[in-house]
Every structure is written in structure tokens, then in C-alpha cells.
Design brief:
There is one protein chain. The protein is α+β, with helices and mostly antiparallel strands. Helix content is about 50%, strand content about 20%. The chain contains 15 helices and 19 strands. The strands form five sheets. Strands 1, 2, 3, 18 and 19 form a five-stranded antiparallel beta sheet that branches. It has a four-stranded antiparallel beta sheet with strand order 5-4-9-16. Strand 7 (about 130-135) and strand 8 (about 135-145) form a beta hairpin. Helix 12 runs antiparallel to helix 15 and helix 13 runs antiparallel to helix 14 (about 440-465). The longest helix is centred in the last third of the chain and has 32 residues, at about 475-505.
């Protein structure tokens, strides 16, 4: 009987053909190393349970989907890290995605120091873009519906508060120091006392303090050291101050320079209030109309703000970007823990294609080199086919599993190379034992195959014990490599044992 007519070998061949068909019709999922794009590492402020991690990953996916991206990949690594892969490398676009990812998504509407509405009250699916255009002026807007219970609470808090500002916060900064320059909080239309009172009122909500950099006699290093606050909000451009904060191990929330500037408005009672201040999370502060301060219940609400830009087109684009960002954050909901984004890694699409080409060529050359050495070593035509068949089938199945269910990235490709080496090594162990005997009976062949399989499984077990702890590391590259290698080792044992058991019977004679 020929070894390739054995039922087990035929079954393995059929499975390999099915895997090839799966690859041909469905395709493979390649990592950004091969397709191009950006990988953004995220670290959670503390370790979380698996259920919490799943919630965070799902929130990230929902936010990016609402932003218009359905191809974003988010995967957890351990209990404190998440990798987000974006199929684009444009710096401006990546910066927008990073803004969405690092937002906590905590929405609050505050009237006279009391929380009237929170993001938990927003009805799912009701969030919509709602801009206002009047001539060349544009105001971005995001409308939503709140639950009836939340609307009743809003009505109770708003009762009798006509002309009070409704402070609409997204990720309100709390218990922090806000470091600004005078120009960021100045406004020539209002007196210093009016501005001071307005800033004091809005900072009080979060127990925040204000530090003005360019005050006379300012010693910023001494003030930071003496401050009881551990978190500091500051412009990204203040690099010297940021270095001081880092040296003192302070938590830094770096904002765009334009976010540090506060804008103001005066109501009908001639009271000045802060209208917008992105540095502290204040989106807008519309005044409460008299009809909403009577206790009446309404469920439709809108967040609005002025669009920035020198030209109409810049203001229009600002409105579009702002609405998409806020809509996606509100749609995703609040995150249970704070996230910290690491340095993103970007691969251009053209370079990704080169990586893929090099990997495929490298795999083929490695296989040819190994087979050439094996052919020279044995010089027995009968031993060559199973030596070629086994690793080829193993690679087909491994690629189908890793690229169909998971993602084929550089780490997985490295694992494939390692698995190929292990497969050939296992076959050499069996072949050496079988082909070293001149008169090979079926009983002797069975004993030799059994002994070889013991060596193979023992070596595989030692390898698994050695690398298994790496699966619990926080490095996605290591985890991808180990996963591919362990999966390849399992396939190697299964396929090699079945094929070479059939091969041993086919070359043996007698009992």
C-alpha cells in the first residue's frame, strides 16, 4: 500500500484543499506591516478584568465606526493594553482618531452647579449632526434625545433658572491645574473682574485652579512644586514647562494651543460667563430660555459651538470634524477607565507591499533550501514526497487559520518560519530512525515510529513550557509570534504522526 493512499493522509489532503479554497475565496487578513496604515498603542491606567476589557474594546470599535471607519482593528493585549490599527497613514487623520480614542466620553450638562443630564441618559441611535449656517457664519451642532426620566430631572434642575448658562461638558477636567497665558483668558469686551468671576465659576465645578504663566514675578517651577494638584492641563507648545512637569512626575494633559483659549458671552442679566473652553472640556454654554425654566419636560437637546477658521471653507471643515468627533464619542459612551496613548507606528502602503513580497519570497527560498539539504542527505526518492508534503500542508493550514481567523502580521510570519523549521526537524527525526534500518518489518517500523513520536512530542512539550509565559506578556509582537509557533507545533505533531505512521507501514515488509 502506498502511504498517500492511506485514509488519514487522504483526509489531511482534503482539509488542505478546503483551506486553500478558503484562502482563495475569502482572502487573508494582513496586518498594517503589509497593507500600510497606523498602529496606535493604548495603555489603561490600571489593570482590568476581561469583561471590562471587552467593554472598552467594543466602545473603541463603536466610536471609530460612528466616525465612518469600519476597518479599524482593536485588540486587547493582556489586561492593560490595547492595539488599534487604522488603515490610513495621513497625519491629520491619525490625530483625529487619537482624539477620539483618548476621550473618556463622559458628557454632562450642569446648571447652577448641579448635573442636569449625563451621557447615560442619551437614547441610543438618536445622536445626529445639526449644524447652523447663517451667511458665512457656521456653528457646529450635535443633537440627541434623552430618556423621559432624564428629561424630568433636567426640568427639575432647570426650574426657575432662566438666563442661567447650561454648561455642556465632554470629559470635564477635575482636580487639576490649568496652565494658561494671559492672552488665553483675556477679552477686550469685558472687564478683568467680570472675566475673573466667570473663570472662577466654571473652574469651581471640577475643583480646578488656574495658573497664569506670564504674571509678573512668576516662578512656575516653584508654583508647580507647591501645588497640591497632581494633574496639569497645558498647551502642547509649552515644551519647557512640560519638561518641568515630567521631572516632577506630574500627570500631563497636553492640549492644542487653540484649545487653551476661553471664549465668553453675556446674558440678558448682564452677567458674563465662559461660553467655550476646550482645555477643561467645556463644549458650549447656551443660556437657559424662560420656557425651559418653567418645569416643562423636553427630550430633544443640542450641543452647539462656533466654528474656527480664517476662511469659510476652514470653518465648514472645522464644523464637520467637530461634529463627527463629538458624535462618535457620545455614540460610543463613556469608558470605565482612563486611557493613555503611546507613540503610533505608521507604515506607508507601498512599503507594506514590499514587506509582503519579501516575506513570501523569503518563505519560498527557506523551504527550497531546507528541502535541498534533506534531498542531499537521504538520496532516497521514496523519502522525499512525505518530507515535502507534511510541511506544505502544515503551512497551508497555519496560514488559513492565522490569516482567516486572526491577522497575518510580521510577528505571525516569524512564527510561520519557526513552525516550518520545527516541522522539518520532526520529520528528520522520524526519517532517520526509519531509513537507518536495512530490513524494516512492520513491527520494527511501528516501534521506531512510536519512539520517534515520543521524542517529537517531548520536544514540543518542552518548547510549549518555555514559551507559554510569553503569551501573557504585554507585547503584541511577542504574543503573535508565540501563538503562530505553538499552533504550528500542534499541527506539526498531528500531521507528522499520521503521515509518517502511514509512510512507515508503506516501506516495511513482513510482520
Amino acid at each position: 500500500m502506498r502511504w498517500y493512499t492511506d485514509k488519514r493522509v487522504i483526509a489531511i489532503t482534503i482539509i488542505a484543499i478546503i483551506a486553500l479554497a478558503f484562502i482563495a475565496f475569502r482572502g487573508l487578513n494582513f496586518g498594517i506591516e503589509f497593507t500600510g496604515g497606523t498602529r496606535i498603542p493604548i495603555t489603561l491606567e490600571k489593570a482590568v478584568t476581561q469583561s471590562t476589557m471587552d467593554e472598552i474594546v467594543n466602545t473603541i470599535k463603536l466610536r471609530t465606526a460612528k466616525f465612518g471607519l469600519t476597518q479599524v482593528v482593536a485588540r486587547s493585549v493582556g489586561d492593560r493594553q490595547i492595539y488599534v490599527e487604522v488603515p490610513q497613514s495621513d497625519p491629520k487623520f491619525v490625530a483625529e482618531i487619537e482624539e477620539i480614542l483618548k476621550a473618556e466620553g463622559k458628557f454632562e450638562a450642569i446648571i447652577d452647579g448641579k448635573v442636569a443630564v449625563t451621557g447615560d441618559s442619551i437614547v441610543s441611535g438618536s445622536i445626529a449632526e445639526n449644524p447652523e449656517i447663517s451667511g458665512d457664519k457656521i456653528r457646529w451642532g450635535v443633537s440627541f434625545v434623552i430618556t423621559q426620566e432624564a428629561a424630568k430631572k433636567f426640568a427639575d434642575v432647570a426650574y426657575g433658572k432662566a438666563n442661567y448658562p447650561v454648561y455642556l461638558f465632554l470629559d470635564r477636567v477635575e482636580d487639576s491645574s490649568i496652565i494658561v497665558r494671559k492672552i488665553d483668558i483675556s477679552n477686550e469686551n469685558y472687564t478683568n473682574d467680570e472675566l475673573k468671576e466667570a473663570i472662577h465659576n466654571v473652574l469651581d465645578f471640577g475643583n480646578n485652579e488656574l495658573i497664569i504663566l506670564d504674571e509678573p514675578g512668576m516662578n512656575i517651577s516653584q508654583i508647580i512644586q507647591s501645588s497640591e494638584k497632581k494633574t496639569f492641563v497645558i498647551s502642547k507648545d509649552e515644551k519647557d514647562i512640560i519638561e518641568i512637569l515630567k521631572s516632577l512626575n506630574k500627570t500631563i494633559i497636553a492640549k492644542e494651543p487653540t484649545d487653551m483659549r476661553a471664549s465668553y458671552a453675556k446674558n440678558e442679566l448682564d452677567v458674563v460667563n465662559v461660553e467655550e473652553w476646550p482645555a477643561i472640556g467645556l463644549l458650549s454654554a447656551p443660556y437657559l430660555s424662560e420656557n425651559l425654566a418653567t418645569g416643562s419636560v423636553g427630550q430633544m437637546y443640542t450641543i452647539q459651538g462656533a466654528s474656527l477658521g480664517a476662511s469659510y471653507e476652514e470653518r465648514r471643515q472645522y464644523a464637520i470634524d467637530q461634529m463627527k468627533k463629538i458624535k462618535s464619542i457620545l455614540s460610543g459612551g463613556a469608558l470605565p477607565v482612563r486611557l493613555e496613548l503611546g507613540s503610533s507606528m505608521t507604515v506607508p502602503p507601498s512599503l507594506g507591499k514590499e514587506f509582503l513580497s519579501y516575506s513570501v519570497v523569503g518563505a519560498i527560498l527557506a523551504f527550497i533550501a531546507v528541502m535541498a539539504i534533506v534531498v542531499i542527505r537521504y538520496r532516497k526518492p521514496a523519502a522525499i514526497p512525505p518530507l515535502i508534503f507534511t510541511p506544505v500542508v502544515e503551512m497551508i493550514l497555519l496560514v488559513a487559520i492565522l490569516g482567516g481567523v486572526g491577522t497575518l502580521d510580521l510577528a505571525a510570519i516569524a512564527g510561520l518560519f519557526s513552525a516550518m523549521g520545527s516541522a522539518v526537524d520532526a520529520q528528520i527525526v522520524v526519517s532517520d530512525d526509519l531509513l537507518s534500518t536495512k530490513e524494516l518489518t512492520k513491527d520494527i517500523a511501528r516501534q521506531k515510529v512510536k519512539r520517534s513520536f515520543y521524542i517529537i512530542t517531548r520536544d514540543a512539550a518542552v518548547l510549549a513550557v518555555a514559551v507559554l509565559p510569553l503569551l501573557f506578556s504585554n507585547l503584541v509582537e511577542i504574543i503573535g509570534f508565540v501563538t503562530a509557533m505553538l499552533l504550528g507545533t500542534i499541527l506539526n505533531i498531528i500531521i507528522t504522526t499520521q503521515v509518517y505512521d502511514a509512510f512507515g507501514k508503506s516501506i516495511s515488509v513482513g510482520k
